[in-house]
Amino acid sequence: MSILYRCRRVPTALAVLMIGAIAVVSAQSAHAQGKAKGASAHFRATAPDLVSKGRITISHVFNGMGCNGQNISPALEWANPPAGTKSFAVTMYDPDAPTGSGWWHWVMYNIPAGTTGLVAGAGGGRNAPRGSAQGRTDFGSKGYGGPCPPVGDKPHHYNITIFALKVDKIDVPGDATAAYVGFNLNANKLATARVTGLYGR
After folding, report:
1. What is the residue range of 136's domain?
2. Residue 201 pLDDT more than 80?
3. pTM of the predicted model, to two decimals?
């Protein structure tokens, strides 16, 4: 190969490298923009009642088992569910309960797709969305059961999870356990959003 031929190939190779570099930068920029757009529109939830560093107040604490709260479920709001969402469900679970399996405090499902939140007290059946159902908790009854951790424990974490589901309703028995309902929720979820409250005594 002559020196002249090699010299002619250098500008061509540089041009190819420059075009490739521009393509990579453009792809990375588009990817970053896509991630930013997705981050601003992801499924999210808030709990307006839990505004003081996520601390659960006495109005939401259980009434019984040594606790003297008002047992009112907190208000919840959610936004930006994924496309194809046909219903919602809400669960509240304490992974810190000294049971070996945590403690289910609340299970509500078959919440209509147009719903964007729950008012305070919906877990007691009052102003619950039409068509929704509530499952049995570890208190042995249906409906919301507030926090009541052992005295002296570090504050427990109460994970409130909103499920966006791909089905209008989940088909479970009326007396289904929270674990049974949870199995069906996870089998049909499109996305979840979570709020965590803290309570200790």
Report:
1. 44-199
2. yes
3. 0.80
